[in-house]
Amino acid sequence: METESILLGLALLFGIYMAWNVGANDVANAMGTSVGSKALTLRQAVLVAAVLEFAGAFLVGSHVSDTVRKGIVTPEVFTSNPLFLAYGMIAALLAAGAWLQIASYYGWPVSTTHSIVGAVLGFGVVVGGFNAIHWDKISAIVGSWIISPLMGGLIAYLIFTLLRRRIFYSSNPVKAAQQVTPWLVLCLFFILTLILVFKGLKNLNLDLPLMQALSLAIVVGAIAAFVSSILVRRIRVETTAERELIIQSPKVITALSKAVKHLQQVKADTSGEFHYQTTRLLDEIALLEKTAQRGMEVETGGDAIKTVERIFVYLQIMSACFVAFAHGANDVANAIGPLAAAVDVLKTGVVAMEASVPLWMLGLGGLGIVVGLATWGWRVIETIGKKITELTPTRGFAAEFAAATTIVIASKLGLPISTTHTLVGAVLGVGLARGLGALNLRTVREILISWIVTIPAGALLAVLFFYVLRGIFG
Amino acid sequence: MRTIISKLFGRSPFAPLQFHMSKVGECVQKIDELFTALGAGDYDKIKTISEQISESEHAADLAKDDIRNDLAKGVLLPVDKATLLAILSIQDSIADKCEDIGVVLTMKKLELSAAFREDFQQFLKKNLETFDVAQRIIEQLDELLSTSFAGFEAEKVKTMVDDVAYKEHEADLLQRQLLRRLFELENEMSYGTFILWLQVFEALSQLANLSENLGHRVRTLLDIKV
Fold first, then answer.
1. Which residue, A134, A201, B187, B225, could crosslink A206 as a Cys pair with Cβ 3.0–4.6 Å?
2. A438, B143: Cβ pair inside 8 Å?
């Protein structure tokens, strides 16, 4: 009994430590973008993250936690030595935590998720043997590691391209932004609601069948979109410093339209070389007409963009909440997955796992993340926020929305992915859509290298700690 | 705490490019002062200004090197990197030309004779005007970046590019006239003076030519539905 209590204590300790680590280092990558664009102050960012990370962990965190708990290593292999499973999971937590400490000391871009999955995988293979691993699950997970940054990038690219075409190309960007905003809000709330209620938490009556879930999601989305369309109309265009712009008088424009009509007549009545020359002339004059008109419409040219960005501050706040929620849902598993497995074994003495991760553990994980955020994570958010100042709200929204959507879908599918790498993919997507000034592609190379190194490193450390634990506790 | 996200963002080259252009603008501003001094026959002042131009040109070179260093391999830009570097080179050439003009004027005590003074003033003014528009184009780069090189901002810049091209054409015409004047007076000046004036005209016309090149390069960055 004594050993069980000590091991339980160790499991909780290292589990909470991992959760703390997620809050201290990982959350900042997701929230830093909102602070950099000034959509949120540091205090607001920490508050948003605290509430939503917890909510995400609690409400949607069970799927990924289950995968890490019993989806990678088959518990049945340890039926004869149930304690080994406990040792292994505790060792995995310790190994992942240690590896993250080393990596952050050297400034390597290591993912918390990759570390824990590598650690669990490592101990499983070495101690349980080849058959102890669900290799199909592993291949799905590794596949998701490759797909999630790409998907984040693709969605971000599409969103920002949409924003370019509809807003920045338009002759009245503010009006275009006011029209686009409700649709974006609709999408965001639709996805969020759907994730919450389709196959959601049974204990909270959040488990709806597909049709009902879709309908509810659309209704919620529509309401949110409607509210936003009203709010967004109240934004006025700022009229600050005047820009010099050549504005043609209405007489000029009327004269030009007449010229166009006359030339069209000429074009219709001629053929051959003459017709060709007239067509060219017509094109030139039509262009001139357009230029003259634009001079009239776009008097407050430069300020329109500032107003658009102001509108998108609100959208970015929403996407920041979304990202925090998604992040909590996916990363809480890094701590709680192994913890739940160890606790199950230690409490019951056998390897039969509970149907799903108990809610109190998800809550504990969420709490750990919040504490990590409050004690250390805010500092990292501040640092990042100071460095990323060129990420304006439109860009920030595109990247965060793309990342959050990808992460939350992966969470629903029970796939533990790297939230940070997904966000990197999303930012690159915006960069490719010509949204950002300069991005270091060397970072991608560093990330790829970290992929190759982290799995073996986590695995080796986990095996090491496993044997240490077995040596101590027998 | 160098996290991935902060490492991902590099130093945007657009603000430094605008800064470099402002330094080039300083050089060009001094050209104006230089010829005012020439008109007044103040040769000491010409020497001083010429040295100032060299200093400004050197400051611009340092800024240029900074930009080039930051744009080493592996940086993703919203525009073609080669074009951006080309724009930087053109700006650099403009500063170099200013320095050359300054040096030429210190070779000999030239005199702005009344015969072609008027034509020359017009020519000088046109070249400076052309550069002005080019400088304003570069000043739009941050606006272009915020609108992602598309839309009405890009259209506005395109109009400015057309303007530069037209002004350069006007400068060409003025240069032809000025050269004819010079050849009419060739027997009234020494060979050395004649050569120096030719060099001055050539270098000045380069200001407009390079400005036009700059404009066209910026034009290729724009995402306009033609």
1. A201
2. no
d(CA B56, CA A434): 33
What ipTM does the predicted assembly reach?
A: 0.85
Under 8 Å between Cβ of B132 and B201: no
B residues 134..173 contacting A (CB < 8 A): 143, 145-153, 155-156, 159
Q: Quick check: A438 and B11 CB within 8 A?
A: yes
Q: What is the pLDDT of residue A238?
A: 57
pLDDT tens string A177-232: 999 999 999 999 999 888 888 877 666 666 778 888 888 889 999 999 999 888 88
A438 lies within 8 A of chain B by CB: yes
CATH 3.40.50.2300 fits B12-221, yes or no: no
Q: Verify whether the Cβ–Cβ distance B152 to A171 is below 8 Å.
A: yes
* Residues A284, A373 share a domain: no
Closest CA to B103 of B12, B27, B215, B160: B27
Q: What residues in B contact A28, CB-CB < 8 Å?
A: 3, 5
pLDDT digits (tens, 9 = 90+) for A239-280: 554 445 556 777 888 888 888 889 888 888 888 888 888 888
Which of 1-60 (A) contact B at CB < 8 A? 25, 28-29, 32-33
**Residues B89, B90, B91, B96: what is their CA dihedral angle, to the nearest 10 degrees?**
90
Return the structure tokens found at B73: 């391999």
Q: Whole-angstrom Cα distance, residue A470 to residue A459? A: 16
Answer whether A425 touches B (CB < 8 Å). Answer: no
Q: A434 and B149 in contact (C-beta within 8 Å)?
A: yes
Residues of B whose CB is below 8 A from A100:
none
The DSSP code sequence of A319-349 is HHHHHHHHHHHHHHHHHHHHHHHHHHHHHHS
Distance from CA of B31 to the nearest CA of A (A): 26
When comparing pLDDT for B3 and A433, which is higher?
A433
A366 and A264 in one domain?
no
Q: Least CA distance to B159: which residue of chain A?
A: A291
Question: What does the H/E/C string look like for A298-326?
Answer: CCCHHHHHHHHHHHHHHHHHHHHHHHHHH
Q: Are residues A20 and A159 in the same domain?
A: yes
Phi and psi angles of residue A439, each rounded to the nearest 5 degrees, phi first: -125, 140
User: A76 or A441: which carries more pLDDT confidence?
Assistant: A441
Span B47-68, mean pLDDT? 93
Q: Assess contact for A444 and A153: CB atoms under 8 A.
A: no
Do the Cβ atoms of A441 and B76 come within 8 Å?
A: yes
Name the A residues in 209-238 with CB < 8 Å from any B CB.
none
Closest partner residue to B147 among A168, A245, A383, by Cβ?
A168
A439: β partners: B9, B76
Residues A287, A352: one domain?
no
In terms of CA atoms, which chain A residue is nearest residue B226?
Answer: A287
Q: Report B:72-91 residues touching A (Cβ under 8 A).
A: 74-79
